[in-house]
Amino acid sequence: MRLSEVAVPEISAEEVLVQVKAISINPVDVKTRAGKGLAGRLKESMPLILGWDISGVIVKKGAHVTDFAEGDEVFGMVNFPGHGKAYAEFIAAPANQLALKPAGISHEEAAAATLAPLTVLQAFTQHANVQAGQRVLIHAGAGGVGHYAVQFAKHLGAYVIATSSVANRDFVLSLGADEHIDYRSVRFEDVVSDLDFVLDTIGGDNFDRSLDVTKTGGTVISIPSGLNETLTQKAKDKGINGYFILVKSDGKDMQHLADLLGNGTLRSHVSKTFAFENMAQAHEQVESGRTVGKVIVTL
Ligand SMILES: NC(=O)c1ccc[n+]([C@@H]2O[C@H](COP(=O)([O-])OP(=O)(O)OC[C@H]3O[C@@H](n4cnc5c(N)ncnc54)[C@H](OP(=O)(O)O)[C@@H]3O)[C@@H](O)[C@H]2O)c1
Known about the structure:
Blueprint: E1 15-25, H1 27-33, E2 53-61, E3 73-77, E4 90-94, E5 98-100, H2 107-112, H3 115-127, E6 135-138, H4 144-155, E7 159-164, H5 169-174, E8 179-182, E9 195-200, H6 205-211, E10 214-222, H7 229-237, E11 241-244, H8 251-262, E12 270-275, H9 279-287, E13 294-298
Parallel strand pairs: 6-7, 6-9, 7-8, 9-10, 10-11, 12-13
Antiparallel strand pairs: 1-2, 1-4, 1-13, 2-3, 3-5
NADP nicotinamide-adenine-dinucleotide phosphate (NAP) is lined by residues 26-28, 115-116, 119, 139-140, 142-146, 163-165, 167-168, 183, 201-202, 223-224, 245-247, 286, 289-292.
């Protein structure tokens, strides 16, 4: 990565120009920077302005934008899985991918609450339809996605079991998990079974093992990368809905998140904040795989 001076982006009639105050860093940013993740899809746009998750202030709006005004504080995940161009002082963002930042939430907390909880919202409500009383397992409950997933599953009334290392046990329980599994000393399939829903944030054989603890008719959603056919067939053979999903930018979903953040149902845990000039350190932190909650870069 390198810093460059570029022109302030032009906006279309449906877009707003946002002065970026905070950016959240995701594993997909790190993978794409390393030539994986979305790098293949975006190869025509190289060199990329990376990033998708922002919170900031509208400084200009397109002719057809009616929902927002100049000066509004907004947040959102911009153009995912396309070219977001969020690592910048100014971003051109489609107005229908943003929501007003709730009062009382910082730009850091708002920027955090974009790609990660959108994934959770779309997985739990649009794909899996998790219901009150169901038993759910969330892998990596301390991570960016997982810490929102635990809170959201509790909000839906589910019984929540979450994994993390023992160092993050108290954090995961403080989010509302009913049970914690230290994945380093316990194999989860030895202690749970008959689950309604599993969120696989780890991939590889973790998806396969998750199928073994899910009941017939249950769902396992995997998010780290595509699944091979053997595994999707194994899910089918067991009568389990097992598949990969990719989060998508959506202003209505952002508004749902804004409501949950505004009324205190969801809270962002920002564990580390870096200055824009130290973006490389922010990437190294996320690349470590040990991040608790979210990593934020501020401008
Ligand atoms: N498909 C999509 O739309 C989509 C959307 C969002 C994210 N993702 C993908 O989902 C994955 C997770 O994203 P994220 O943002 O949550 O990552 P993250 O914040 O970097 O996750 C870090 C957390 O993972 C935990 N962890 C690492 N290995 C673990 C294991 N074997 N079992 C349980 N916990 C473990 C760590 O806890 P300990 O230190 O306690 O081990 C740490 O808290 C990434 O691969 C990301 O690219 C996909």
